[in-house]
Design goal:
Layout (H helix, E strand, L loop, with lengths): L1 H21 L9 H29 L11 H24 L19 H20 L3
């Protein structure tokens, strides 16, 4: 149970740092407190997304421990699901006006979502796996 709590905490912290770093790529959230609140909320949401990705891959790969030994199939599955979830969340957020991009956000052609939020799940999910393997209790 301690390891799960540490992995969730690491997932939150990594995403919190990313959310704050990319905050300038979104329309202003107001003052520093407003940005902190929105980035914290987004990081909690990211924890849920990462958990959902883990769950989906556990079903797809027929194992709750799929991440312990990675191979090409698992890396491809993690990458495809991460990108699909990121694009879906961005489409929803933009369509529901929950957020909007600033002019400095690079947009993925034909998809219409920002590069940074897609890169977030694509890059942080392998890092989270690495961190989870290094946490030993």
């Amino acid at each position: 149970m301690k390891k799960i709590i540490l992995v969730i905490t690491a997932t939150f912290l990594l995403n919190f740092v990313w959310e704050n770093a990319q905050a300038v790529l979104y329309q202003p959230h107001g003052d520093a407190w407003g940005t902190l609140v929105r980035c914290s909320t987004a990081a909690f949401g990211d924890v849920v997304l990462v958990g959902g990705i883990y769950f989906l891959l556990s079903i797809f790969l027929s194992s709750w421990r799929w991440f312990e030994v990675m191979n090409t199939k698992k890396w491809i599955a993690l990458s495809v699901v991460s990108v699909a979830v990121a694009v879906g969340v961005e489409w929803w957020g933009l369509a529901s006006l929950r957020w909007a991009y600033s002019d400095s956000m690079a947009i993925i052609p034909f998809v219409g979502v920002g590069v940074a939020p897609v890169a977030q799940l694509l890059l942080l999910n392998p890092l989270i796996l690495f961190v989870s393997k290094k946490i030993s209790l």
